[in-house]
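B., you asked whether I could sanity-check this one before it goes into the benchmark set. Here's the sequence:
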Amino acid sequence: MKVVVGLGNPGSQYTGTRHNVGFDVVDRLAQLWQAEKPQLKFQGQIQQVQADGHKVLLVKPLTFMNCSGQCVQPLLRFYQVEPVDVVVVCDDMNLPLGRLRWRAGGSSGGQKGLADILQKLGTEQVPRLRLGIGRPPDQMDPVNWVLARFRGDQQQQVQQALDCSADSIRLWVSSGLKEVMNRYNKSSDS
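And here's what the prediction gave me:
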């Protein structure tokens, strides 16, 4: 079983914000894989799909971003899934808008939802897909930046990044982390 955890904040006031790109990627995958209606379990919204011969859980923690581990840790324990079979999808201010970066593990890089998951799981060896949202303009509080919506002139680039993220996760499910890192990190870094 594979688990895709998209990070974000619940509630309509956060829909379409930079911080919710993880939720947006999970929604895109649910649409592509024709997932059934989500169930509420483990303080999250969960959809199970069959993709490329694998059971895949699509997860949106509903605990608010900074407490995402409260959903992920009991879910993995219940389904007996190892952290290496999880990908956490989150926003990253240190990447240009639309840039993807896959990593096998490491620190949270300041992303508090990812930090909570790593702390609750007791390991940094959790694959993650970071989706660039760009840096805030000078003098803008980073909290206000991540909770703001994308500008109209950014929408096409954001939609392309969401499509590319979903495609990369489909490759991760079918072919593994090494393959997806080779293909998507090279193309996104060029």
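One thing to flag: The longest strand covers residues 44-51. Otherwise nothing jumped out at me.
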